[in-house]
Specification:
mainly beta; SH3 type barrels; Porin; 2 domains; 5-stranded antiparallel sheet
Length: 331
């Protein structure tokens, strides 16, 4: 394994180490590192890395450094979900992405970091054509996310098969995992691994491991839009030939609820170009619309477009896919 790829691996596993603790800075200059477990109008409880939990009076605290998210319900029933920050006048407050804030000294009740949220979706999509060319194209796709405070884990898995005139023309599988650490409301460190194969197209294996920086343009219950860049190490075996390369990658992920939350539009894409190893530019995108049929069952229309400048010998540069399917969501 070459040096640049080793450095990517070190950076990826260092992300978790960078996200181990909150800290508070006292007005007398002391600093306490640990996990902020609860905040009230006059005090906070922090669990140090070593030792028992400590209760500190809020008026003795100058700064709270925590990427954890807190949910505060106002007297009028509205909520503010955000992290702790110092406002322009120096007041400690829970501040959301829209700039709404609730001063800690006016908290109506003690609050703790927001509990984790999770979901899993799984759907089966197909595209069948009859006529001069009979073809069948189907995909089983499963994705999931787990978010706890400042930590987001997400992954997906797909099996994609295609048959034309009775001959199998695609047998593609892929699996991805990504971890984001939100070190403030807008920015996050990201790292991930991915694997794919399509032996019919002569792609025996392709592994990717990378780490980088991302930015949330929006991150609310109704709209999510993130962008970022990573440096990826790519290990692949094509036609029996193994290769390693270094590829900077750009990514975008967008989804928005519409029709009173009963439907969602989504688009995600990524673009990677190699700077060492085998020359190959890779663009992948998925765009679609999902509509809830019931609380747990949905219908989905999706268009995928992938392009590789130097694909495997038996593969085309462009790969279009139009899919209609149904799925189930569990949370």
């Amino acid at each position: 394994m070459n040096l640049p790829v080793k450095l990517i691996g070190i950076a990826l596993f260092s992300i978790a180490g960078a996200a181990i603790a909150d800290s508070i800075e006292m007005k007398n200059g002391d600093r306490i590192s640990g996990l902020v477990e609860e905040i009230s109008a006059d005090s906070l409880r922090i669990n140090p890395e070593y030792g028992d939990p400590i209760v500190v009076m809020l008026d003795a605290v100058a700064v709270i450094n925590s990427a954890e998210r807190f949910v505060v319900e106002r007297a009028d029933g509205t909520t503010v979900k955000g992290s702790i920050a110092n406002t322009a006048d120096g007041t400690l407050a829970v501040v959301d992405e829209a700039g709404q804030s609730v001063a800690l000294i006016s908290l109506p009740a003690p609050v703790e970091p927001d509990d984790y949220t999770w979901f899993v979706t799984s759907d089966l999509s197909a595209n069948v054509s009859k006529g001069n060319t009979e073809s069948e194209d189907w995909r089983w796709y499963t994705a999931g996310e787990v978010e706890y405070g400042a930590h987001l884990h997400k992954g997906d898995f797909a099996i994609d098969k295609q048959e034309a005139n009775g001959v199998e023309t695609k047998d593609q599988s892929y699996l991805t995992y990504n971890y984001n650490w939100n070190f403030n409301d807008a920015w996050f460190l990201t790292g991930g691994v991915a694997w794919e194969q399509d032996p019919i197209k002569d792609l025996q294996n392709r592994y990717r491991i990378g780490a980088g920086l991302g930015y949330y343009i929006f991150n609310t219950d109704d709209i999510f839009w993130s962008v970022g860049v990573t440096a990826d190490g790519v290990f692949e075996e094509i036609g029996g030939v193994k290769d390693e390369s270094l590829a900077p990658r750009w990514f975008l992920d967008y989804k928005q609820k519409v029709i009173d939350g009963r439907a969602e539009v989504f688009h995600r894409h990524s673009y990677a170009t190699t700077v060492s190893g085998r020359d190959n530019d890779v663009f992948k995108s998925s765009t679609g619309f999902r509509f809830d049929l019931t609380a747990a069952i949905y219908a989905k229309i999706q268009i995928d477009y992938n392009n590789e400048s130097e694909p495997a010998a038996l593969a085309e540069n462009d790969d279009f896919k139009y899919l209609i399917g149904v799925g189930v969501r569990i949370n």
